[in-house]
C-alpha cells in the first residue's frame, strides 16, 4: 500500500498502540465501519486510513479492488497467511508493517504480537487489497503498528482466528539519541534467476552467531515484477530471513514498478511531491539511510532522477549532514551503480544516474553507496563526484552487492575501471556492523568465506 503523511494525521498521534488496542468486536478510529459484508462497489473504492497511534496514513493503490479495513473473521478457501514478512512504514525504532498474502476472498487482517512468543497479548487490525489481473493478481493484507518500544524483539502471528501463521519475530531499531549503538544489517540483491541460490543466500544471512537486525535488498528480486508466481518463489526463498527480520527493498528495473512489487512491500515514503514508497529515508542508530529509485515511472529520468527526486534527496541529505553529531554515517542505497565495472557501466541510464547523483553524494558527504544491478561484488576506491580517486580528503565508497541468484556478470571489457578497488564475479552478500565510531562492511561469498579485499571500515567524517 501507499502511505502518505497529511498534516492532520498528526492528530492521530494520541498514544502508543499498546494503549489504543482496537477492541475485538467493534470499530474504532482506525477502522472503517464494516459488518463483513461490504458491497462490491464499496470494495472498489480507494481506501485511506491512519493506523491507531501512527503519524502516517495508509492508502490503497489506484486500480485495486477488495479494499477493506478491519473485517476480522471473513475467510476464503485459502485463508492461511503466506509470504508473511515485516518492513518499516516509518521510524524503525517505533513502527512496523506486517504484510502477507491470502486468497482474494479472505478479509481477516489481524496481527497478534508481544514481547514473548508465548504471550502475544496485543492485537492490531489492518486492511486488505487486491491488485493485478489473471496470473498477476495478488491479494495482500497489511497491518501497521506504531508506538512500539525501541530496541525490542517482538513476536507475532498474522491472519485471524483459526487461520494463524506461525509465530515470527522482528526487532525494532534503537532509540534515537543514544550513543552506545551497536547495530547490524545485511545486504543482498539480484536474486531473480536462481531462487535456489537465493534461498541459500538468505539461509546464510539469517544464520550465524549474530543474525542481522534487518536486511537491505538492492533490487531485481524477480525476472519481471508482474510475475506473481516468481514473487511467491522469492518469498519462499527468503523465509529464514523474513521470519526474523524486516526487509527494506530498493526498486530494481526488473521489478518493473509492477503493482505486485508495490503492494507486497510497505515502506516509508518521501513527502510531497510524489508520495511514493520508491524513495525514502530513515535513521537507524548511527546510520542515516537514504533509499532511491533509479528506474522512474515512464522512464522520466530528467523529471524524476534529476528533478523531483533530486530535490527531495538534496533536502534530505542536507538535514542528515547537519545531524552528523548525532547520526554520524550516511548510507545511500539504489539499484544501478554509478561506479561499477560490469555489463551496465556504460549504458545510457547508468551514465545519467552517475552524472546526476554522483556529484550530490560527494557534495553532501555520503559515506557509502550500496548498489545492485551488476551481478557481482565490487568495491570502489574513495571517489569524488565524477569517479576520480580523491587524495587529501574523504571520498565516497561504492559497493555493488548483487548476484544473489541472478546469472553472474564478468567485467565489461575484461578489466576493472579506474575507479574500482576490487571486483569479483561471485554470489555474495554483505554484513555491516555500525557503532558511533565505526562502520565495518564485511562481504561474504556463498560458501561462507570472506571477500577480504572487499572489506572496508569507515570512521565518521570530521564535523
Ligand atoms: Fe539485475
Ligand atoms: Fe537491474
Quick take:
With about 475 residues, the chain is α+β, with helices and mostly antiparallel strands. It has helices spanning about 40-45, 195-205, 230-235, 240, 260-265, 300-320, 350-365, and strands at about 1-5, 50, 55-60, 65-70, 80-85, 95-100, 110-115, 120-125, 125-130, 140-145, 155-160, 170, 185-190, 215, 245-250, 280-285, 285-290, 330-335, 370, 375-380, 395-400, 420-425, 430-435, 440-445, 455-460. The chain has 2 domains: about 1-170, Sandwich (Immunoglobulin-like); about 185-460, Purple Acid Phosphatase, chain A, domain 2 (4-Layer Sandwich).
Class per helix and strand makeup:
alpha+beta
- Tell the overall outline: globular
Read across the widest sheet, the strand sequence of neighbours is 16-17-18-19-21-20-22
H/I helix tally = 7
CATH topology category name of the largest domain: Purple Acid Phosphatase, chain A, domain 2
The second-level CATH architecture of the largest domain is: 4-Layer Sandwich
- Which ligands are bound? fe (ii) ion
Tell me roughly what share of residues is in helical segments. 10-25%
Domain tally: 2
Amino acid at each position: 500500500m501507499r502511505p502518505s503523511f497529511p498534516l492532520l494525521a498528526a492528530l492521530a498521534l494520541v498514544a502508543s498502540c499498546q494503549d489504543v488496542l482496537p477492541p475485538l468486536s467493534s470499530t474504532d478510529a482506525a477502522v472503517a465501519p464494516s459488518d463483513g459484508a461490504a458491497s462490491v462497489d464499496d470494495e472498489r473504492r480507494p481506501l485511506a486510513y491512519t493506523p491507531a497511534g501512527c503519524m502516517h496514513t495508509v492508502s490503497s493503490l489506484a486500480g485495486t479492488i477488495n479494499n477493506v479495513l478491519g473485517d476480522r473473521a471473513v475467510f476464503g478457501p485459502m485463508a492461511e497467511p503466506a509470504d508473511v514478512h515485516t518492513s518499516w512504514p516509518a521510524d524503525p525504532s517505533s513502527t512496523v508493517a506486517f504484510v502477507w498474502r491470502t486468497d482474494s476472498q479472505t478479509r481477516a487482517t489481524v496481527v497478534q504480537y508481544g514481547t514473548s512468543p508465548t504471550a502475544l497479548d496485543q492485537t492490531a487490525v489492518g486492511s486488505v487489497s487486491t491488485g493485478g489481473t489473471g496470473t498477476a493478481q495478488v491479494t495482500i493484507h497489511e497491518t501497521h503498528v506504531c508506538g512500539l518500544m525501541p530496541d525490542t524483539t517482538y513476536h507475532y502471528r498474522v491472519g485471524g482466528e483459526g487461520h494463524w501463521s506461525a509465530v515470527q519475530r522482528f526487532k525494532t531499531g534503537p532509540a534515537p539519541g543514544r550513543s552506545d549503538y551497536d547495530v547490524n544489517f545485511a545486504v543482498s540483491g539480484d536474486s531473480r534467476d536462481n531462487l535456489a541460490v537465493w534461498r541459500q543466500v538468505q539461509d546464510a544471512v539469517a544464520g550465524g552467531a549474530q543474525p542481522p537486525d534487518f536486511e537491505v535488498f538492492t533490487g531485481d528480486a524477480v525476472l519481471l515484477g508482474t510475475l506473481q508466481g516468481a514473487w511467491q518463489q522469492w518469498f519462499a526463498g527468503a523465509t529464514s530471513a523474513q521470519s526474523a527480520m524486516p526487509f527494506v527493498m530498493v526498486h530494481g528495473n526488473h521489478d518493473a514498478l509492477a503493482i505486485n512489487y508495490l503492494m507486497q512491500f510497505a515502506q516509508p515514503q518521501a513527502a510531497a511531491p510524489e508520495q511514493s514508497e520508491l524513495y525514502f529515508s530513515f535513521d537507524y542508530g548511527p546510520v542515516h539511510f537514504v533509499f532511491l529509485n533509479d528506474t522512474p515511472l515512464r522512464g522520466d529520468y530528467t523529471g524524476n532522477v534529476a528533478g523531483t527526486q533530486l530535490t527531495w534527496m538534496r533536502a534530505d541529505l542536507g538535514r542528515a549532514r547537519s545531524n552528523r553529531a548525532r547520526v554520524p554515517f550516511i548510507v545511500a542505497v539504489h539499484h544501478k551503480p554509478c561506479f561499477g565495472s560490469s555489463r551496465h557501466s556504460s549504458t545510457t541510464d547508468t551514465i545519467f544516474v552517475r552524472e546526476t547523483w554522483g556529484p550530490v553524494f560527494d557534495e553532501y558527504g555520503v559515506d557509502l553507496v550500496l548498489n545492485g544491478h551488476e551481478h557481482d561484488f565490487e568495491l570502489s576506491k574513495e571517489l569524488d563526484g565524477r569517479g576520480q580517486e580523491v587524495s587529501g580528503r574523504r571520498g565516497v565508497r561504492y559497493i555493488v552487492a548483487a548476484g544473489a541468484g541472478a546469472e553472474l556478470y564478468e567485467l565489461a571489457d575484461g578489466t576493472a575501471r579506474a575507479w574500482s578497488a576490487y571486483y569479483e564475479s561471485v554470489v555474495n552478500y554483505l554484513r555491516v556492523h555500525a557503532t558511533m565510531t565505526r562502520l565495518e562492511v564485511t562481504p561474504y561469498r556463498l560458501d561462507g568465506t570472506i571477500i577480504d579485499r572487499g572489506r572496508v571500515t569507515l570512521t565518521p567524517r570530521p564535523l
